[in-house]
Amino acid sequence: MSGRCKNIQEPEVQQLKRHNSSLPVFSEHGVRMCCRLRCLVKQLDRGEASVAELKKSLEYAASVFESLYMEESRRLADPEDELSDIQSDSVPVEVRDWLASTFTRQRGLVVRRNEDKPRFRSIVHVVQAGIFVERMYRRTSHNACLSYPPNAIAVLKHADTWCFDVFALNDASGDHALKFVFYELLTRYDVINHFKVPVSALLSFVDSLEVGYSKHRNPYHNLVHAADVTQTIHYLLLKTGMVHWLTELEIFAIIFAAAIHDYEHTGTTNNFHIQTRSHEALLYNDRAVLENHHVSAAYRLLQEDDMNMLSNLSRDDWRELRNLVVEMVLATDMSCHFQQIKAMKNYLQQPESIDKPKALSLLLHTADISHPAKRWELHHRWTASLLEEFFRQGDKEAELGLPFSPLCDRKSTMVAQSQIGFIDFIVEPTFTVLTEMIEKIVTPLIEEASQAAVNQSSSVSRTEASGSEGKPSSKKSGGSEVSCSLTTVDLHSFKGTWNQEIQKNREKWKAQAKGVEYLEDNDKKEQNQEQNQENQQQNQQQNQENHDDSQNTELERMKTEEDGADEVETVKQDQQHQLDRSKSPGGFLQAFDLHTAELVTADSLEQ
Ligand SMILES: [Zn+2]
Q1: What is the mean pLDDT of residues 576-599?
Q2: Has the keyword Heme been applied to this entry (predicted)?
């Protein structure tokens, strides 16, 4: 810094410091940068500044802004951070807790859990040892409460696989897929024992859940979908090593949330509720209407003594479980998708560890839209189910004189493009961000476990050398079995699995879309005069091009910008205009707007 500015620097520094004393981010460096830049302006006025000095000052300014930006992003990503400025020295703990419970989303959760709990727990053994160990266990504890049909046992042997056939389980269990998946997983993760869950209450609760899921006879949002999402959560926890990062309570919470996440779904979208001014829309003021209902109605079941499977949880556990469940289920509102993905990407840029509720929410959201990443037979069946559900909503809309929601008109069949779009713009990016998140969380755990395994083997060698029996502990941290279970986690293969299925499904949809176009062309050749046919083809091609262009442009924009609600809103509006204009049913985005991301298309399903 040039000496000429020294005389004006100090008073300005003091002045700026006074003004910015409440901004810890804008500290010493920021103040100095301002002075330096002002000084430089004066030098430039006088024609005294050299290029070198200008460059140096600008570089300094850039570095300060960068760190300011990083700090600010971190603060934005962590709403609680506002409270961290209030130091316990100046404010009593009780007051701080009151502030936290009143002005942050941590309502009522005063007790903070110790984040440094042991990661390697006995339950990991229970789960990873597999179904047979568990079955022995169940026989001795609460066998009398739920007997498994032999066929259901056979299907459940594949519960740890990505393409588990939940439809087969539902058939084998007499339409009780949810009951068996829920019970099976709570047993395998040792939740029932750990939280002293009364099994009779658990079974009454899940029976009522199944009744609620069947209330509206939905082709898609039914108990099989709930079972599917719950089993997918299990796969994600187990195969990616995420189970090692979570506490028993967090595992309980995500399995519970998955099981209830669409409870009493009406088979219609949030937008339909809002448009028809339904009881639920009025009750929840048009905000996350269905999601609010799912979690609220499920918790109402727990109010009944005979269904209160959470009766033995401590007050703190109950409160924490509820916070997590509410957050996760509300985050399945698809209108949160872009904000959720954007926030997670932001988290991944930060050096800090990832917020548990946000990580859990992303897991559940991904599981909820995962069927396009499963093998074709499963994906295709879900597709057909969801389309039928949409069409039924369309029938209702026609009856009520409302315009069709996207993809809800039975006569509209050209939807392959929208399905491909759904995969490209929603499903694949979600899986990508989820995988990055998991890598960030699990990689350090794997390294830690590898180190522990090395230490363990050297200590075992010493034990063996001394002649005593090296009995492996099933509970202790650093035990060789546990280390092995983490070191065998293969994130690369996880990524390969979902990626491969997505690619295959996308290709199948593309092929079908082409096939449909081909068939349509042939029909027209037979039915029309040559001239008519040419006209039609031209029109069709033109429509298709217009549609593709406009949709892809908007989607591309959305994908690159992903800039929160305003952008998404603009895209939605634009797309609505396109839809009105071209009557194109390729509206995956609109359907997404209708808070139904499990969007699919099935050009040829009906054919
Ligand atoms: Zn769902």
Answers
A1: 37
A2: no
